[in-house]
Design a protein that fits this description.
The protein is 19% helix and 40% strand. By secondary structure, it is an alpha+beta fold. Strand 10 (145-149) and strand 11 form a beta hairpin.
Length: 231
Amino acid sequence: MAICKHCFIEAGYFNDIHPECQERLDAMSEGLASVTAALMAGRIPRVAFPDLSLVLQDNERPIWFYNNVQEIEQAQRRRFVAGSRGVSIRMMKGVSFRLGATEGTSVRESYKKSVDVGNIILTTKNLYYIGDVDTDIIDLEGVVQFDDNHDIFRIDDRKHRFNFKMKYVHDAMSLKRLVRLVIDLPVDAPLGAPEVKDPNRQTPLAPPSAFPAPTPSPMQRVFGKRKAVPL
């Protein structure tokens, strides 16, 4: 049974990716290509963003959006490890010795548990996590380090460590790259041009906000046909 290279779930005997995963990956790659190209050129990309009722700061622009993200925390728990009666060795009739007997004991172990589910919104100034339980705002200027491990994206500021379990491995990788590019943006970075060139295909690629109304933008194809409000 082959494993989907995008979501790592069984995809069948002759497929290495689900059709819906391939469609989502193609749409995301097209949108990310335009956003990444603008950031690498030192410009803030123009994107059509889902209406999430998010109040942005002055001169703060949205960059990208991820849904179905779990916030993970390190926790401790105890479990009981059973003992052993050992081995009984008979020396003679009526005489035997028991060796290797141990008592059961309680062992403390650490594990990762999901404490919230929500969306990540990356902007030019902050990384927002809007969950069902709480909202976290991570100031990119105060970030100490960040990294990805499989589908986990970890980011540390001066006070706290945040671990986010992304829906797909590709999401953790792309978020890490986007955070690096946003942090490296010049303070006075201008808005991107209406048309961004895709460095991979060497052809002009319109950013999501430039697509005609009848045609869904890459953001809409990835996150659903919700109304996109250009900012």
